[in-house]
Amino acid sequence: MKHPEVHTIGVVGNGMIGDSMTVLTTGHGYETVSVVRNTAKIPQYKAKYDEYYRQMIDHGVLTEEQYRVCEKYLRYTDDYSELKDCEVIFECIVEDLEQKHQVYAKIEANCPKVKAICSVSSSFLPDKLGEKMEKYYDRVVVTHPFNPAHMVPYFEICGGRRTGEGVLDWVKGMLETLDRKPAILKKPNPGFIGNYLQFALWAAALKLVEDGVCDPKDIDTCLNYSFCPRYSSIGIFDHFDNGGYKLNITTCDAVFPILPRWDGAPEIIREKAESPDAWGAKSPTKKGFYDWNGVDMAAYQERVNAPYWNFCKWDFPKE
To answer: In a 3-state reduction of DSSP, which class is residue 14?
Structure first.
């Protein structure tokens, strides 16, 4: 069911998140205006949009006919005045604060109906994003997704000191009409919730490798075949509440004192970042902690998406 106060959604910026967002919004029957910087790249953006939908068709999520209906809801432009009817705008441009401020100034000048400006930033908090705004500073929030945003249902919503009353709950309700599972932060936090947790695990994994306890493959085997599958159906607080805290406190006392407490990226990562393997699988060497030479990357992407297909049960538009 669509949000009663939302008819048109704007997506500013294409690429990894922006293209995915247009799939999500059109797939739920919202008129979507995608603002691009370079109109010459529109065929490239549309090709990615088509590719995402083709994957969904191949997995039986929707039919070709349903896809043809969805794509009617999307239009591309480089003219911000075409956002004039948008009630919601997702800002998906690069992590450059000055460029984001320029986008928000154009939104203030062209979007009289906007109720929420949702940045997908993973770095900047709302107070910083809206610091130069004159009209809509109370409507700027962070709605941080995980990639790809149309596949991974979790979004985390973060407001700031100047966020208007009720805006966070309104945005949460809007995201729920997109079949997302949003969480609202009570206060800003570096890494929000998801990256804070993910990088805590990453820090522990790197420490085990750096200390020679095990190889990267051993850690990935542990994650694949021990507790990670459990957390796709229950939560960590579910788990430990169910087990009780007599054993829990004993393990906390043993493990917490040796958990890594680095001031920044550890040496094992800095060495990688300064080596020919700086981009991991995308490096010219095609190496990171693993050797990616000869790896079937299409099959790898299938494994990346595999846990999320069950969440793609949308009420696609009929016409």
So the answer is: coil
- Exposed e or buried b per residue across 232-261, where buried means at least 16 C-beta atoms within 10 angstroms of its C-beta: eeeeeeeeeeeeeeeeeeeeeeeeeeeeee
Taking alpha carbons only, the member of 282, 278, 302, 303 closest to residue 293 is: 282
Q: CATH topology for 194-274?
A: N-(1-d-carboxylethyl)-l-norvaline Dehydrogenase; domain 2 (1.10.1040)
Whether 8-192 shares its CATH topology with 194-274 is answered no
Class of domain 8-192 (CATH, top level): alpha beta
- Taking the alpha carbons of 153, 159, 163, 169 in that order, is the dihedral positive or negative? positive
pLDDT at residue 15 in the model = 87
Q: Is 86 exposed, middle or buried (0-12, 13-18, 19+ CB in 10 A)?
A: buried
Q: Of all helices (H) and strands (E), which one includes residue 117?
A: strand 116-119
Tell me the sheet residues that pair with 142: 119, 158
Residue 276 vs residues 264, 288, 290, 302: alpha-carbon distances, Å: 21, 9, 13, 27
**Alpha carbons 177 and 173: distance in angstroms, whole number:** 7
pTM attached to this predicted model: 0.92
- Domain positions in the chain are 8-192, 194-274
User: Could you tell me which residues come within 8 angstroms of residue 87 by beta carbon, excluding any fewer than 6 positions away?
Assistant: 5, 6, 7, 8, 9, 113, 114, 115, 116
Q: Which residues pair with 182 in a beta bridge?
A: 155
Q: Are 143 and 120 in contact (CB under 8 A)?
A: yes
pLDDT digits (tens, 9 = 90+) for 168-226: 999 999 999 999 999 999 998 989 999 999 999 999 999 999 999 999 999 999 999 99
Q: In 3D, which of 308, 271, 26 has the Cα closest to residue 151?
A: 308
- pLDDT under 70 in the chain at which residues? none
At 319, is the secondary structure helix, strand, or coil? Answer: coil
